[in-house]
Amino acid sequence: MISTILISIIFAGCSSTNTNTNSSTTINTVGNTNGNINNGGIAAQQGDWIYYDNDGLYKIKTEGTEKIKICDDVARYINAAGNWIYYCNDADMDKLYKIKTDGTGRSRVSAL
Predict the structure, then answer these.
(1) Which residues, listed in sequence order, are joined to residue 68 by a DSSP beta bridge?
(2) Which residues pair with 58 in a beta bridge?
(3) Helix (H), strand (E) at residue 4
């Protein structure tokens, strides 16, 4: 519960995006929208990828190709910002975690 509140506070009003100068892909520099977080945040889009939970954290191209499992965590309140995905891990009492978009660097953010 604390993690949910923390995420809501941290990412409140975060719908800004920034275009990466190295490509035409739009990258979220701040995070997800309030509406998505308020609805459980079971999916988030970053550029050409959609990050979602399906008994594990996955990513899939927006056109429905290249489905890739990122980790086994049951992710809620998913938020993509920069090269990181932030989420509450349902299996760890909703503690806040982060993982890089390529599946590396997984770590717990909240100490509660």
Answers:
(1) 59
(2) 52, 69
(3) helix 2-10
Q: Is 80 helix (H, G, I), strand (E, B) or coil?
A: strand
Domain boundaries, the chain: 2-108
Kindly give the confidence (pLDDT) of every residue in the chain, 112 residues in length, as a single tens digit, with 9 standing for 90 and above. Answer: 444 444 444 444 344 444 444 444 566 655 666 766 677 788 998 889 999 999 899 999 999 999 999 999 999 999 998 899 999 999 888 899 999 999 999 999 986 6
Cα separation, 36 vs 79, whole angstroms: 9
Paired with 52 in beta bridges are: 43, 58
pTM score over 0.85: no
Q: Measured between alpha carbons, how far is 80 from 72 in angstroms, rounded to an integer?
A: 17
